[in-house]
């Protein structure tokens, strides 16, 4: 049995079904605050403080924190409680390499096995992502993140390995933390890229069943965030990888 089968809350997001229990609700709220940087990397997670903020009991909060361990977003410190998992450039490079390896192979397999339903799912996901990226009045970050995740999931949805999909869901959340860092750094020194063009290249190759071209486009897309952050740190070694956030802990 996969961890996802035992507790499927990691698949929940604000655009899906609402959490069914207080533990799931606390889990999702904590996960979002960790991914966005509201709970800073390395921050100690004090149950006595957080239970009031998330409006749950101490026991419920501890259960949610324990579940976040399986997502590698929280680390346990023995009897001293929990901390938000630290981030670093080396960690991002490892996440990126592993994600490229798993996700490009999953895309290849999905293209080979995908049927008409896969084709329809991918077209619908790309259409929603395109709307989010081209909306007049500016990009809604939450809408874009939901659409982006749905697009990446649609790309590999015909792959037959539940374990691969589960591991990629964890890696996606880890990569999402670094995207938030890239966005914050980009607000000060724009990190130039055309994300919609990247997604279009992936979609067009995948829908045309050109698996080698699609895999190369996906690899370049995943790798670029890592390359841009590495360049930002190289240009200014004093630039913190994780700028200060509204820390709750």
Automatic annotation (TrEMBL):
Residues 20-87 form the HTH gntR-type domain. Keywords: DNA-binding, Transcription, Transcription regulation. This is FCD domain-containing protein. InterPro entries: GntR_C (IPR011711), TF_FadR/GntR_C (IPR008920), Tscrpt_reg_HTH_GntR (IPR000524), WH-like_DNA-bd_sf (IPR036388), WH_DNA-bd_sf (IPR036390). PROSITE patterns: HTH_GNTR. It comes from Ideonella dechloratans. It comes from the Bacteria. The keyword Transcription regulation applies. Pfam families: FCD, GntR. One of its GO terms (molecular function) is DNA binding. PANTHER family: HTH-TYPE TRANSCRIPTIONAL REPRESSOR GLAR (PTHR43537:SF20), TRANSCRIPTIONAL REGULATOR, GNTR FAMILY (PTHR43537).
